[in-house]
Amino acid sequence: MKVLIIDDxxxxxxxxxxxxxxxxxxxxxADTVDVAVGKVVSxxxxxxxxxxxxxxxxxxxIIDRVHxxxxxxxxxxIILRTGDEQIPTDNAFIKGHIQKPFKSSDVLDxxxxxxxxxxxxxxxxxxxxxxxxxxxxxAVQTVKSLxxxxxxxxxxxxxxEDNSKAVADVILSFGQEGYDIMLITSGKVKATQERYRGSNxxxxxxxxxxxxxxxxxxKLGTMISNIISFVNEKERPVIVFDNxxxxxxxxxxxxxxxxxHQVFLVETDKKHTFVVSVSTRDFTEKDKNILLDHLNYYNxxxx
Length: 303
Description:
With about 300 residues, the protein is α/β, with parallel strands linked by helices. The chain folds into two domains: about 1-140, Rossmann fold (3-Layer(aba) Sandwich); about 145-300, P-loop containing nucleotide triphosphate hydrolases (Rossmann fold). It has helices spanning about 10-20, 35-40, 55, 60-70, 105-115, 120-140, 145-150, 165-175, 190-195, 220-235, 245-250, 255-265, 285-290, and strands at about 1-5, 25-30, 45-50, 75-80, 95-100, 155-160, 180-185, 200-205, 215, 235-240, 275-280, 295. The chain has a seven-stranded parallel β-sheet with strand order 9-8-7-10-11-6-12, sandwiched between helices. Helix 2 (about 35-40) packs parallel to helix 4, helix 10 (about 220-235) runs parallel beside helix 12 (about 255-265) and helix 11 (about 245-250) packs across helix 12. It is elongated.
């Protein structure tokens, strides 16, 4: 089934997109009124998730413009709202709402409720049970043990890859076996929390704003201090960089490599592991070898 997310907040877009893709929906996004209207008029969507705060509260205007351009166009709109914002009760296109802040279940339940409007209740219940059974079964089958991955706690690894799936799989394996994980990520907090729910994980999101739970990417010394504290305080510490390129883009290759060198040489009697994921799009063989001086090469294809 196909969903269009209309929101001018890219962070919210990405969170919703990840939730829906994980639930096997096909997802498209729009962040301006004109783009949204064009997509709805030219394509068929099973559901439209619309932020009413978009561009100063013009979200509802999108529904009116689509109807004006194509009076036969069918829409099942789910409103994304904050606080006590009122939703029109006389608009036939508005089928439900999602309240901010939201959980994954809030989004999926809102869609299920809209499905129920045009589907017998017993069929809705059946689909929910089948989906939940599939997700649980799939999770058990896809999360391999560290032994199956040939990963040894106390050793450190680098993954040269262009997407985050392989490192996410490694994180899930550590999480499944109860390790203490610090994840330094370029992803969004809410989506990352959902992905690794149940793991003993300390999520630190890269940000240019120094605040609780966030690193200031321009002060690598702060990052080193946080990592060293984590290693010293936790029982079985695992430090993961799921996208080293963002640090490199903002701080330069030399500064980041110097930071990693200091981290890798931390003197402690406690066994620990580093996992670094990096795209090699801008890397020379020399750059790769610098990382491989400290880290084992991990290739998930060889599992």
